[in-house]
Amino acid sequence: MAFSPEDLKIMESIIKRYPRPRSAIMPLLHFVQSKAGYVTNEGIELIAEQLDLEAAEVTAVSTFYTQYKPSAIGEYHVGVCTNTLCAVMGGDAIFASLKDHLGIENDGVTDDGKVSLEHIECNAACDYAPVVMANWEFYDNQTVESAKELVDSMRAGNPKPPTRGPNKLVTWKEASAVLAGLNDGLAHEGVQAGQPTLLGLKLSKEGK
Amino acid sequence: MTKLAPVLSAHWDEKDSFTLEAYKRHGGYKASEKALAMDPDAVIQLVKDSGLRGRGGAGFPTGMKWGFIPQGDNKDHYLVVNADESEPGTCKDTPLLMANPHVLIEGCIIACHAIRAKHAFIYIRGEVTHVVRRVNQAIADAYAAGILGNGVDVVLHIGAGAYICGEETALLDSLEGFRGQPRLRPPFPAIAGLYARPTVVNNVESISSVPAIVMNGAEWYQSMGTEKSKGTTLYSLSGHVVNPGQFEAPLGITLREILELSGGVRKGHKLKFWTPGGSSTPLFTDEHLDVPLDYEGVAAAGSMLGTKALQIFDETTCVVRAVLRWTEFYKHESCGKCTPCREGTWWLVQILRDLEAGKGTEADLAKLLDLCDNIMGRSFCALGDGATSPITSSIKYFRDEYIAHLTNGGCPFDPVASTLFVGAGA
Amino acid sequence: MSEVAVEMITVVIDGFEVTVPKGTLVIRAAEQLGIQIPRFCDHPLLDPVGACRQCLVDIEINGRAFPKPQASCTIPVETGMIVKTQLTSPVAEKAQRGVMELLLVNHPLDCPVCDKGGECPLQNQAMSTGQGSSRFEGVKRTFEKPINISSQVLLDRERCVLCARCTRFSEQIASDPFITLNERGALQQVGIYENKPFESYFSGNTVQICPVGALTGAAYRFRARPFDLVSTPSACEHCASGCDMRTDVRRGKTLRRLAGEDAAVNEEWNCDKGRWAFKYITAVDRLKVPMIRDESGELVEASWPEALAVAAQGLKASPAAVLVGGRATHEDAYGYSKFARLALGTNDIDFRARVTSDEEREFIAAHVVNSSTTYRDIDKADQILLVGFEPEEESPIVFLRINKQFRKRALKVISIGSKESIAVEKLKAQFIKVAPGQEAAAVSSQNLTDKSVILVGERAGESAGVLTAVAGLAQSSGAKLAWVPRRAGERGAIQAGAIGNLLPGGRPVADAAARNEIAALWSVDSLPSNIGRSTSEIITAVNSDEIGALLVGGVDPLDLDDNLSALAALDKAFVVSLEIAPSAVTSRADVVLPVAAVTEKSGSFLNWEGRARSFDAAVSDSLNRSDLRILSMIAEEMGTSLNLGTVTAATKEIATIKDWQGERSKMKSISAAAQPNLSTNEALITSWRRLLDLGTLQEGEENLAGTARQTVAVISEKRAQALGVADGDLLKISTAQGFLTLPALIENIHDDALWAPRNSRGSQLLTKLNAVHGEVVTVVRA
After folding, report:
1. Average pLDDT, whole number, for chain B?
2. Where are the domains of chain C?
3. Taking 70 as the threshold, does the pLDDT of residue B423 lie above it?
4. What is the CATH number of domain C291-354+490-656?
5. pTM score, two decimals?
6. Which ranges in chain B are annotated with CATH 1.20.1440.230?
7. Which residues have CB under 8 Å from B79's CB, separation 6+?
8. What's the family (chain A) (predicted)?
C-alpha cells in the first residue's frame, strides 16, 4: 500500500511532537501499523527516510517490541494473558480453548483474517483476572465460554464491546492509530473504572 | 486496625472522574497554581519534607531525586513519567490513569516547575488502548484550557510491548527511539538522562501524589504511614481472593488487614503464597500476613515492597507451575543485552519445565539455585535479579513441593482446581 | 588546543599498585600489571557497554565494597580503589566462571570446523576461565547458518555471543549502521535490513574484532588454520592512508590480510580494499621471465643477460624518459629517480600516472615535499577543509580519523565540491557546492585559523587555480596543509625525486646547490639542470620524436588523460617495461622485465603524512626481482653504477639524505578558467574514483566487488526535470571520444554538473569519454 500525502503530513506532525526526530520512531511504527496492519518494508523505509536513519536502525527497533507485527494479523487481535496469575485462574484454559475453537496456534490468524491469537504477558489488570485483550482493549473476568463468544462475535462482524473501553470495539488498525497518539474521540466512552478498581473507595466510605 | 485512606482514588467513583470538569470540581489544578507561585526549591523541599518515596518499586525519596537536578546549568531539563506498568501483578497506574489522568498532568506541572523543566513525557505502555485515549484526551483538554502550553508541555509517548522499558534507563533509550535496553550508570539520569540532559524519571503514582501534598502540606502527608514510609498508597489485591481490587491505605497496613476488610481468601481455601510487590519480589507465605507493608517492613522480612502488587495464591496452586510461568515471562522480556539474564533465563526455563514435568533429580534443585546465584547480581540490570526471586524464594518455602513433582513423576496438582470458574462447568 | 597534564591515579589490583591516568578503566589498569581479565564486549576503541559481564571483579573504594561484582570494562579507576580479580577473589572467580558457562549454553560445538578455532577469544577464555564441562543438558538455540549479510561477510548467529562489537563498530567508528541488533532476549541477533546488505567500506573490521566465529570473511572461509599461517607485519599498498597490516601466508600463498595496530595512523582499523584486495598478485597471469620483441614483432622469452642488453642498448640509443606509477615503494622510486639522472642523464621523470597539471607539480615542490601535517593535526583541528578530496573513497583511514573527531566533539568539516557525497552527509559537513572548475573562488573565501587543517586531494589539480588558492589560504590563515594523494607510492616518489622538478629530499632541480648536494652523494660531477618534462609532456615529446625511449614501471596508460596519445607514444617509442603482469604497456614494450609484487619484497611507502611504512617480504621471491635490482642491472649494462643492488642498500642511502634546508621553489599563481557556457543538454562532468571499483589491484576479488557502490550518473533535480528523467532512468553521456549510458540518480549536485564514478563497472570515464572533471559533456535521456 502506498502512503498518501495526508499520511505523510500526519507523520510529520508526529515527528514534531519531540525535541529530536528519532524519538518519533515508535509512534511512527504504530502509525504504519494503522495503515498497513503490520510493519511493512515500505513502512520501515519511509520511517528511515523521514528520520534520516538507516532502515536497519528502524528494523532494530521494530523487532524489539512485541506489539509491532512482522506480518499481517487479524482485524481483531486477541491476547490472552497467560502470565502466572491469569494463567492459574483460567487464562491457560481460555487460551487452550480459543486455539482449539479457532483452529489456530499462538500468533496464528484465522483464514477469514478476522481474528488472530497471541498469549500475552501481564496486562496490568490482575484484579480483573482472567483477562483477555482485543486490539489492546480490556475484556475483564473472562471465562472459557465468554472468550469463545467474544471471538465468535468478532468473526460474525459484530464484536462484543470491551468491559472497560469504548462502546464498540475498534479494529486493529484503528487501535494502532490511537497508539500512534492520534485522538479518535472515544476517550469519553465506557466506564471510568470497573468495580474492583473502586472497591477500596467503596469500603472506605463504609467506614473501613 | 488500619483504615483505608483514599486520596488518589477519592473521586474515582464518579462517572466522569476522568474529565477536566470533574477534576476541577474537586479542586483540580489548584495545587499547581499554588506551586507555581512558590519558589521551585521550596516545592522540592516540600516534597522532601512530605517523605514521599518512589511508588514504582524502588522507594527512592522523590524530593531527593528532584534535588539532584543541577540548577542554573542552562540546559534543558526533562521530566519523564514512567507509566510502563508491566510488572506481573502490578495494576495500579493503569486504573489510576483511566479514572483520573488529570491528577498526573497536574503533578507533571508541579514537578516541572520544581526541577525547572519545560517538557514532560509520559511513557505509557502500549497495550492499554483506552487508557491511552483517556490520557491523550486529558492532555488535549489541558492544552485547550490553557493549563498546558504556558510553560510546560506534556508529550504522551506510547510503548509497544517491552517490560524492560519500565527500567528507567531502558525507558529513556526507548523514548529516544532506540531499542529499550538499559544504559550504563553513571551517568545517572539526573545528570545525563533524556537526550543526555538532566532528567527526573518518576512513577505515575509518585507524581500523582504530589498535588495533594502541595494542597494539604507535608505534615498532612507525613501524618500517614510509618516512620520511614510516609503517606498513602495503592495496594493492588489480586488472585484467589473474594474481592480483588485497589485499596488505598497508609503505608504499613498488613495483608491480614487488607484481606479482612475485603473479604479474605476465596471461600473454602487458604492462603499458600503471595507476592508483596510483583513477581520480582521474593514470595511470602501465610507466615507473613502480619508483615507491615512498608518499605522497611517488607525488606526486613526478606522481600521488597515493590509495586505493592499483592498476588494471592491459595493451596490449589502449584508453586512450580507459578514460578515456571514467571520465569518464562522473564525469558520473554529479557532485553538480550547481558549474558546472565539472556542465557540464564533461557536455561532456567528448561530446568523448571523438566522439574514441573517430574523429570530430573534433587541435584537439579541445587543446580537451579547455583544458576540463580550466577545471575543474581551479575546481570546488567535488575531484571535478571528479579528473575531469580520467585525461584529462590519458592525453593526456600516449598522445597518439598518441588521434590513431590520428582517423586510423583509430574505435577500433583489439578490445574482446574485453581481456576476461577472451577465448578462452573468450564 | 593546549595539552593539559593528565592527573594520575594509583589503585591496587590483586595486591599490586599501579598508577594510571585518570579515566582509565579498571580492565586496562589491570593490563598494565599483566593481569588479564577475560572479556568479550570490551574493545579499547569502542564505547564501554558492559554487556557480556565476563569481566566481573570485586571492587572497594576507600573501604566501601560494592555489594556485587562490577564489570571492570565500565568502571574508571578512582583514588583509594582496591580491585580483586579472579586471581584473588573467589567471588569474582565464580562470577566469571558462571558467566562463561552461560555464554556457552547456546554456543554450538563448531570449533572443529570454525575459522576462528585456534585464535578464538571464546575458545581461549573458556579454557582459562571456564570449567571443563557444562551442566547444561537442554536444547540449544538454533538459527539457519551461516547467512550472507553481504557478498563478503557471513554471519553465523548460533556462534554469536551478542557482544555488539560489530554493531558498535559500524555505528561508532564507520557511521554505517547497516548491521544492528534485532529481536530481543534470547532471540536477539545481529542482522541487516533485509533489502540492504552490510555494504560498508569498513565491514572487514567487524570480522576481525568478532570475538567468536560469528562473522567470517567469504574469501578466507575454510582456507586455513591460524596455526598453519605465517604472519608478517606489512603495510598497505593501496592508498596513501598508510595502514599497518598483517599478512598471513600459508605455503607461500597469501590467504588473508588483517589491520595492524598503529595508534598514530590506522589505530586498529583498515578498509575492505586493504583487507580483501590482494589476489591480484596471484589472480593475474604473472610474468615470469624476461621477454624481448623479435624481428617479426612478437614478444619472445629471453634470458636475463640478453634482455638487459637489449634494454640498455635501446635506452642509450635515443633521448629517454622515465614513467613510474604512483605505486612504487619509496626505495624503488628512488631507484627510478637515480636511474633517470645517472643512466639516462635526464630529469624527464614523472610518477604521476594520472591526470596532472604543471600547477600541481609546482604545488608539490612548494608545499607538499617535506610537509609535516599528520593525523594528530586532524585530532586537534578546529575545522577541516576538504578540497578535491573524498576521504572515504580516496583515503578511508583519513575519513575514520575525521569521523572520530566529528563523533567525539562535533568537529566542523567543510567540503568544497560539486556533488555532495555520502561521507559529507555522515560528517554533517558544510557542503560548498560549486560548478566543476570553479572551486578556487570558494577556497579563497574560506575563513580558517591556524588550528585548521586543509586536506587537499590529488583531484584538486584538475581545476586550474585551485592549488594556487589552497596555497594562498594556507598562508593567509596559517592553517595546516596536507596533500592526500590516492596511491600509496606518491608521497615516497616525491621525496625520492621521481618528478622533473625535484631531486631527492625535496631539492629543487633548478637550485644549483641542491643539485650539487645530490651529485656529491651520487659521486658524479653534475646533474642535469633543466626542469624535466611531466607525464603529458613526455608523451607529447615521444609523439613529436623528441624522445625515443621510455622506461616504464607500474603504469597503466588508461589512467592517463588523453590515453589514446599515451598508447600511441608507447607504440612509437622503444619501451622497457618493468611489470608484474601483462598490461597495455607490456604488450607494446620492446623489453619486458618481470619484477616482484609488493608482498614479495621489502621496502616502504610514505603515507600522506610522509610517515614511513616499512614492510618485509611476506612471500619470498627467490629471484629477488625488486625494481631496484633490475634498474641497477640495466644501469650496469649501460656503463653506470647505481649502487642499489638491494633494498637495504637503497634504504641506507636514502637515510643519509637530509631534507632540503634551502629555499623552496615558488609556485606561479594560476587563475581559474572561465566557466564555459552550457547549452541545455550540456553539463560539466565531475567524478572521483570509488574505493571499490575496477582498479587493477582489485582484480579477482569477486566478493569484494559485490559490495561496491552502484554505478550511477548523478544529476540535480533541476536537470532531471529539464530532461524529464527520474531515478533509474538511463542517461546517455557523450563527448567527442565516445559515450556512456548510465542510470540517473537525482542528488545534491550543482545544476551545471554531472557526476559519474571515474572507473567503475560501466563507467570508465577516461577511456570512454576522456573527460573526468570540468570538461563539457552532452547529457540526454537514453
Report:
1. 97
2. 8-102, 137-280, 291-354+490-656, 360-485, 682-781
3. no
4. 3.40.50.740
5. 0.96
6. 319-424
7. B108, B111, B112, B115, B117, B119, B120, B121, B199, B200, B202, B207
8. Belongs to the complex I 24 kDa subunit family.
A-proximal residues of B, 72-131, CB under 8 Å: 76, 85-91, 93-95, 98-99, 119, 125-130
Q: What is the mean pLDDT of residues C719-745?
A: 97
In the CATH hierarchy, which top-level class contains the domain C137-280? alpha beta
Residues 40-99 of A with CB under 8 A from C: 41, 44-45, 53-60, 63-66
In chain A, at which residue ranges do the beta strands (DSSP E only) sit?
76-81, 115-120, 132-134, 137-139
Residue appearing with cell numbers 538522562: B193
Find out whether the peptide bond into C69 is cis, omega within 30 degrees of 0. no
Indicate if the pLDDT at residue B426 is higher than 80. Answer: no
Render pLDDT for C400-424 as a digit per residue (tens, 0 to 9): 999 999 999 999 999 999 999 999 9
Q: 591556524: which residue's cell?
A: C450
| Length reported for chain C | 782
| Cβ contact C67–B377 (<8 Å) | yes
Query: Does residue B187 have a cis peptide bond before it, meaning omega lies within 30 degrees of 0?
Result: yes
CB atoms within 10 A of CB C90: 10
B291: its cell numbers: 508483615
Q: Which amino acid is present at B337?
A: K
> What topology is assigned to B20-222 in CATH?
Rossmann fold (3.40.50)
The CATH architecture one would assign to domain C682-781 is Beta Barrel (2.40)
Q: What is the rounded CA–CA span in Å between residue B70 and residue B192?
A: 10
Q: How confident is the model at residue C187 (pLDDT cuts 50, 70, 90)?
A: very high
Write out pLDDT tens, residues C139-176: 999 999 999 999 999 999 999 999 999 999 999 999 99
pLDDT category of residue C284 using cuts at 50, 70 and 90: confident
Q: Could you give the CA distance from residue C125 to residue C101 in angstroms, rounded to a whole number?
A: 11
Percent of chain B with pLDDT over 70: 99
Task: Determine the topology of domain B319-424 in CATH.
Answer: de novo design (two linked rop proteins) (1.20.1440)
pLDDT at C683 over 80: yes
- Region B119-139 average pLDDT: 98
Any residues with CB less than 8 A from the CB of B385 and at least 6 apart, and which? B280, B375, B376, B377, B379
Give dist(CA C759, CA C735) in Å, integer. 17
